[in-house]
From TrEMBL:
<keyword id="KW-0472">Membrane</keyword>
<feature type="transmembrane region" description="Helical">
    <location>
        <begin position="6"/>
        <end position="24"/>
    </location>
</feature>
<feature type="transmembrane region" description="Helical">
    <location>
        <begin position="63"/>
        <end position="82"/>
    </location>
</feature>
<dbReference type="InterPro" id="IPR005226">
    <property type="entry name" value="UPF0014_fam"/>
</dbReference>
<feature type="transmembrane region" description="Helical">
    <location>
        <begin position="36"/>
        <end position="57"/>
    </location>
</feature>
<comment type="similarity">
    <text>Belongs to the UPF0014 family.</text>
</comment>
<keyword id="KW-1133">Transmembrane helix</keyword>
<feature type="transmembrane region" description="Helical">
    <location>
        <begin position="223"/>
        <end position="245"/>
    </location>
</feature>
<feature type="transmembrane region" description="Helical">
    <location>
        <begin position="193"/>
        <end position="211"/>
    </location>
</feature>
<dbReference type="GO" id="GO:0005886">
    <property type="term" value="C:plasma membrane"/>
</dbReference>
<dbReference type="Pfam" id="PF03649">
    <property type="entry name" value="UPF0014"/>
</dbReference>
<keyword id="KW-0812">Transmembrane</keyword>
<feature type="transmembrane region" description="Helical">
    <location>
        <begin position="94"/>
        <end position="114"/>
    </location>
</feature>
<protein>
    <submittedName>
        <fullName>Iron export ABC transporter permease subunit FetB</fullName>
    </submittedName>
</protein>
């Protein structure tokens, strides 16, 4: 089966659906039409840009072209992971980048080298989409984990400081907020895994089926991707929460609550 090519007219029909959303926003006075228009414009520009970039990368097919693009994708994900929440701390951006980079690249390496076993490993048709899917979900887990950790510590400040005053170690005082943060970061992936194939058909599986791949082969690939995403999301969330914990608790077992500041009053990190 040949994949149906889409014309500009076909894209125009899809654009009308966004116009409908804008009309609903105006009618219901949601004040979302500008944000919707900006989001739609960014979607088009970003996807067209990556389309041209990937076309160029696929034509060269060299590690020194693929690797910098993967690194840039990871940095962007790391920066985006540090933007969530009303509170922040000095070093949050670095913690987000490190936790996303280590977990995503480690799990992607397992997928590329041990599971799919492509040769060469930097084959852009596999390496870039797989890392991209892993990054997107790990980003969500890391950002939610850091935000929840900060919120829990802020809300529980009295109890945390009381525990420390009574002789508890910094980990004993922080372990319950840390558990809640890890749960929050992993929940989106767990919810996605619970309904995959029943309520939703993931993008990779759908793309392979549309391209003529056997549905069973597409399912096998999707199972691998889902497990890679789950592993990276868990590792990234745990890493981010632990890095946050080390930032706001001193080695002398003191809670450095003053480091948690309102985002709009914080200095550039």
């Amino acid at each position: 089966m040949m994949l149906q090519n889409l014309s500009l007219w076909d894209l125009g029909i899809a654009v009308l659906l966004i116009v409908v959303n804008g009309a609903l926003s105006v009618a219901l006075k949601l004040d979302l039409e500008r944000k919707l228009a900006w989001a739609a414009l960014r979607t088009v520009v970003q996807l067209l840009a990556i389309g041209y970039v990937l076309g160029w990368v696929f034509s060269y097919d060299r590690w020194f072209v693929v690797l910098p693009l993967m690194a840039l994708m990871t940095l962007i994900a790391g920066f985006a992971g540090a933007q969530r929440g009303s509170r922040t701390y000095v070093g949050q951006r670095a913690d987000s980048i490190v936790s996303i980079w280590v977990s995503s690249w480690l799990v992607a390496a397992v997928g590329l080298f041990a599971v799919i076993r492509i040769r060469p490993w930097y084959e852009p048709q596999y390496a870039i989409p797989i890392l991209g899917m892993i990054l997107g979900n790990t980003l969500t887990g890391v950002s939610l984990g850091i935000e929840r950790m900060i919120d829990e510590l802020t809300a529980r400040r009295d109890r945390v400081e009381m525990a420390l005053a009574l002789g508890a170690t910094r980990w004993e005082a922080a372990q319950e907020p840390a558990r809640q943060a890890v749960r929050a970061g992993m929940m989106p992936t767990l919810n996605q895994m619970a309904v995959v194939g029943v309520v939703s058909l993931p993008g990779m599986m759908t793309g392979q089926v549309l391209a003529g791949q056997s549905p069973l082969q597409a399912v096998r690939y999707q199972i691998v991707i889902m497990f890679l995403i789950a592993a990276s999301s868990a590792l990234g969330t745990v890493g981010a929460v632990l890095l946050t914990y080390r930032r706001v608790f001193s080695p002398e077992h003191r809670f450095l609550a003053s480091r948690l500041v309102e985002r709009n009053t914080s200095a550039r990190r």
